[in-house]
TrEMBL record:
One GO BP annotation of this record: DNA-templated transcription initiation
Coiled coil: none
Positions of the RNA polymerase sigma-70 region domain: 22-90
Gene3D superfamilies: 1.10.1740.10, Winged helix-like DNA-binding domain superfamily/Winged helix DNA-binding domain (1.10.10.10)
CDD domains: Sigma70_r4 (cd06171)
Superkingdom: Bacteria
The species this protein was found in: Irregularibacter muris
Protein name: RNA polymerase sigma factor
Pfam families, per the entry: Sigma70_r2, Sigma70_r4_2
Entry-linked InterPro entries: RNA_pol_sigma-70-like (IPR039425), RNA_pol_sigma-70_dom (IPR014284), RNA_pol_sigma70_r2 (IPR007627), RNA_pol_sigma70_r4_t2 (IPR013249), RNA_pol_sigma_r2 (IPR013325), RNA_pol_sigma_r3/r4-like (IPR013324), WH-like_DNA-bd_sf (IPR036388)
PANTHER family associated with the record: RNA POLYMERASE ECF-TYPE SIGMA FACTO, RNA POLYMERASE SIGMA FACTOR SIGV
Family statement: Belongs to the sigma-70 factor family. ECF subfamily.
Amino acid sequence: MMTLEERIHRIQQGKNSEFEWIVEEYKNKIYTLAYGYTMDAYMAQDLTQEILMKVYQNIRSFQGQSSFSTWLYRVAKNQCIDWIRKNKRRIDHTILEDGEREFRDLRPSPEEKAIKEETNQRLYDALGQLPERYRVPLMMFHFQELSYEEIGKALGLPSKTVATQLYRGKKLLREKLLSKKGDDMPWTVLL
């Protein structure tokens, strides 16, 4: 079994077939990051493709001075920021699609599925209202299960800043979720 470093070296030497492994290994994490910036499933899918193309085009520049995932997240973050700049008007008027979610249980009952979809929709709606500086670290921490240090490296921030942003983001998210009257969802479990 090849190590990640061996795969990257083979890709850098022109063995492009190895890139499929990179795609399979990282596409869901990249999608989650892209979704954190776009808050739209279809836009996030398109952006994920753009990011993977950018990684493919620039993988020869990876020197191994940081971990591959850190380098990949930097490329992804920069591509997301560029995309946001180009599509600012489009994002400001985006309504969330009720598309498939990446984080669903395997074969839930119809009732569980409906409850989970409603919960996810409310959560994503509330996340979409948060400023980007809180939304993206929250999604990276909770959905990708990255550490403060990994998030900091990916976003170019000190770990303490990430901790502060996560704390403030959770607080804002909690306020948004608990502020709806008549909402009987158990949000405190999530927060």
